[in-house]
Fold this sequence. Notes:
The protein is of the alpha+beta class. The chain is built from 15 helices and 11 strands. The longest helix has 32 residues, at 404-435.
Amino acid sequence: MNKSVAKPHSKARLTSLIPVICLGMCVLAAAPFVSAQRVLLDKIVVVVDSDVVLQSELESRMTEIRANAARANQSIPEEDELREEVLDVLIIENLQMQFAERVSIRFDDDSLNRVLNSMATNSNMSFDEYITALEDNGVYLQTREQIRQQMTMQELQRGMVNRRITITEQEIENFLNSETGREVMSADYLLDHLLIPTSSDETAEVKASKLKYAADLLAQIEEGTALGVVRFSAQQSNSDFPVEAIEFGWRKAEQLPDLFSDIVVDMSIGDIEGPIEAGNGFHVIQLADKRGGTDQMVEQTNIRHILLTPNEIRTDEQSLDAILELRQRIIDGENFASLARQNSDDASSVVGGGDLDWVSQGYMPLEMELVVDELDINELSEPFRSESGWHIAEVMDRRVSDLSLEYSRSQAENALRNRKFDLELQNWLIEIREEAFVEFVD
């Protein structure tokens, strides 16, 4: 029995060489059977608690690493060292999959298909084309299994590691008051931009004409034409004045030119500023988007609903008929809350008479949000379908709430948790490795 400790630094060195999905996986072929002769197809190389690591797994992973290293023009350890490090990785993965099985972490085929569909999109292929490509390469089943394993281990790690991490109120306060914290918490801005260049040797009359031209372009944008469209049209026109632009991308205010940094913090999405005169010309900017920051004014809706979920004794059609009947009873004067307590299948709101309390924009199921957004206060919806079943909903009130403080503290806690996660993950992996029964088989 061998209980040597896993080597986090060794695994880190191999991380870049071990892909989540490798389309060039090694396919092991068994030699033809010879009469009365046994052929060794596979063998156990390590016993890991109640499971094993097979020779084929080891060889397949080493083949992947060699192929990836060759493509990336990277060096790899000597054969014996590589074998030892890969075995360490496989043992840790095996332990995690056993742990996930014990705590019932599983992903169904629909979840895997969503990941495959995303991979297909990233490869500019349809889902069917991508699956066909995997099948043609003989790696479809291996790919699905690798996706399932990676998703399972990530879910396990999130659950096991996050509960080991403690973030105190003092840590949050210190982070928010630190220079790093202020930088992390500050908003990112996406600017659209156009520039009518000027030069120092131009006459005042020419500069005045360019200023008027910039003002004319600004007027078109203010009338509703997108800045990008105005800029493109100006660039394609026969105007005497060229129009240029800078692609800033997402930037924090202090990363923008000084000319814009003080202006952008007071802009709302869609706001336009200009013409702004600078040494190189007249600028017009529009705030295309904004993310993050501590200013969080959120639209909230107070909703109550009744949910009927189809089951073994009530079909989808019968559920719809029942929700229609409940809606009519409410219209006829029966109490919404009483009917919700007696009939709703939503365990989280049934005791409160279907009341979901104040829900922030974007925090309810999309099907419900689309319906609720169209309702007036005290208006009862028509029945609508979600993944959970059939609903009727009523908007009781609406408000805009300042959640800046809550948001800031939540973001700070997430940032601190992310900082601690990798170290705590390594500690947890070392612990489960040390506590495991591991026996190497010659």
